């Protein structure tokens, strides 16, 4: 007997025994409540050896249902396993729509039984199934789109995960698994562009009376704070976004460079809005070069450079949802420019440094090739004062900005370097 190209050579009896061995693995893990073994046997991905073996067995056995039903002597999961193994087979044949359809039937049968188990021993297996629903759902949608059909499997996965969330989010010790399901829902909603649907699960997590947030697994807490931080960015709530994304960054595995980069991709513009300028070495280390010229523009008070940086990375910033946050940094650049003018005047004539003529500001804008007239300059100065980015007032009649003699440029919310 030998393997050739993933298919087994030999008698049907040998194939049946291999499938029976897989069933024995399932029944043994059920009997001993070995959650890790149970989860490993159910995983559906390209590297799972169990899935490859099962797929090959189903290609050759005549009556898989007879063998798979043997699991029912420990728990009524024979139907679940019949659908689940079919999903494994379809997955390895690159038939992702069929794989998803079978997987959803399997997940439904599993959930019905899972509701009856009091302990959390099978939580890892539930998470494996939840993860598979999302990832196979994405693959199925791509397959449908390629065939000219309207993709709907990932949306279906989202609906099913809400059923899972409802089954565990208030059920004693099982509640600790709710955050993982929530994070998978976030990934689905962000993928589909339906982020408004995150609100109901966020509300449930935030108002939980069964668990303190810190009781959830660290990895799930980091993921949750990352996605809720992104939501705060979309809602233009930079203070809340800073708090949540900083939480995620501080608790992220320091060896997971890709994850740190994902967090910083949103935390950097949030910190910029709060007046915190990261070092270029940080941006280079985590391959965030799109922010380098933005930071340089803020340091120099160079409106032209900021606009060029936003234009050059426009598509990237829009896809990330940070463009509007970055666009508002123009006020910070004006503040920096005016501060430079103020410092120059202070060196030349300390007694009159706090009086900055609009004409001087307009000339600086012209030098930077920024097309503005006097009215637009006045408007920009009024915005700076309104936003408390500088203290003072301006005289429309005299065309002069009169800065406060006491701390005309108060410190922003954040530190100037990190």
Structure description:
The chain contains 21 helices and five strands. With 418 residues, it is mostly helical. Strands 3-5-4 form a three-stranded antiparallel sheet. It has a two-stranded antiparallel ribbon with strand order 1-2. Helix 9 runs parallel beside helix 11 (218-234). It is elongated and about 95 Å long. The chain starts with a strand and ends in a 15-residue tail after the last strand. The model is unreliable at 1-11 (pLDDT under 50).
The secondary-structure class comes to mainly alpha
Low-pLDDT stretches are 1-11
Fraction of residues in helix: 55-70%
Strand order of the largest sheet: 3-5-4
Number of helices: 21
Beta-strand content estimate: under 5%
What keyword list fits this structure?
418 residues, mainly alpha, three-stranded antiparallel beta sheet, disordered N terminus, elongated
Helices and strands in order:
Blueprint: E1 2-4, E2 7-9, H1 12-32, H2 35-42, H3 49-60, H4 64-68, H5 78-92, H6 96-114, H7 123-146, H8 153-168, H9 178-192, H10 198-206, H11 218-234, H12 238-251, H13 257-273, H14 280-285, H15 292-300, H16 303-312, H17 314-320, H18 323-327, H19 330-348, E3 355-357, H20 358-367, H21 374-386, E4 392-395, E5 400-403
Give a quick summary of the entry.
The protein is 65% helix and 4% strand. The protein contains 21 helices and 5 strands.
């Amino acid at each position: 007997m030998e393997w050739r190209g993933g298919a087994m050579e030999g008698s049907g009896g040998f194939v049946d025994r291999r499938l029976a061995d897989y069933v024995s693995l399932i029944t043994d893990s059920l009997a001993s409540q070995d959650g890790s073994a149970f989860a490993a046997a159910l995983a559906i991905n390209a590297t799972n050896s169990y899935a490859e073996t099962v797929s090959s067995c189903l290609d050759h056995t005549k009556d898989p249902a007879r063998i798979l039903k043997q699991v029912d002597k420990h728990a009524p999961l024979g139907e679940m396993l019949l659908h689940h193994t079919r999903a494994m087979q379809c997955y390895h044949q690159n038939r992702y729509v069929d794989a998803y359809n079978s997987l959803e039937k399997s997940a439904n049968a599993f959930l019905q039984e899972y509701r009856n188990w009091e302990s959390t021993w099978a939580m890892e297996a539930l998470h494996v199934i939840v993860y598979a629903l999302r990832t196979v759902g994405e693959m199925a949608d791509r397959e449908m789109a390629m065939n000219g059909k309207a993709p709907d499997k990932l949306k279906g996965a989202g609906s099913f995960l809400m059923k899972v969330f409802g089954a565990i989010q208030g059920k004693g010790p099982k509640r600790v698994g709710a955050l993982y399901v929530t994070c998978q829902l976030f990934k689905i909603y962000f993928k589909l562009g339906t982020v408004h649907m995150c609100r109901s699960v966020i509300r449930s997590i935030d108002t939980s009376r069964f668990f303190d947030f810190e009781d959830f697994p660290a990895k799930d807490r980091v993921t949750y704070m990352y996605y809720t931080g992104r939501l705060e960015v979309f809602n233009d709530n930079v203070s809340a976004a800073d708090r949540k994304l900083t939480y995620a960054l501080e608790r992220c595995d320091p060896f997971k460079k890709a994850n740190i980069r994902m967090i910083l991709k949103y935390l950097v513009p949030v910190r910029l809005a709060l007046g915190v300028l990261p070092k270029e070495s940080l941006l280079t280390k985590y391959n965030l070069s799109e922010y380098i010229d933005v930071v340089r523009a803020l340091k120099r008070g160079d409106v032209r450079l900021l606009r060029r940086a936003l234009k050059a990375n426009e598509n990237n910033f829009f896809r990330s949802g940070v463009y509007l946050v970055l666009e508002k940094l123009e006020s910070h650049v004006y503040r920096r420019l005016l501060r430079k003018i103020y410092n120059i005047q202070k060196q030349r004539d300390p007694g009159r440094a706090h009086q900055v003529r609009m004409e001087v500001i307009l000339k600086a804008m012209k030098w930077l090739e920024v097309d503005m007239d006097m009215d637009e300059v006045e408007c920009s100065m009024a915005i700076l004062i309104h936003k408390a980015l500088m203290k003072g007032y301006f005289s429309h009649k005299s065309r002069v900005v009169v800065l406060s003699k006491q701390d005309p440029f108060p410190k922003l919310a954040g530190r100037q370097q990190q």
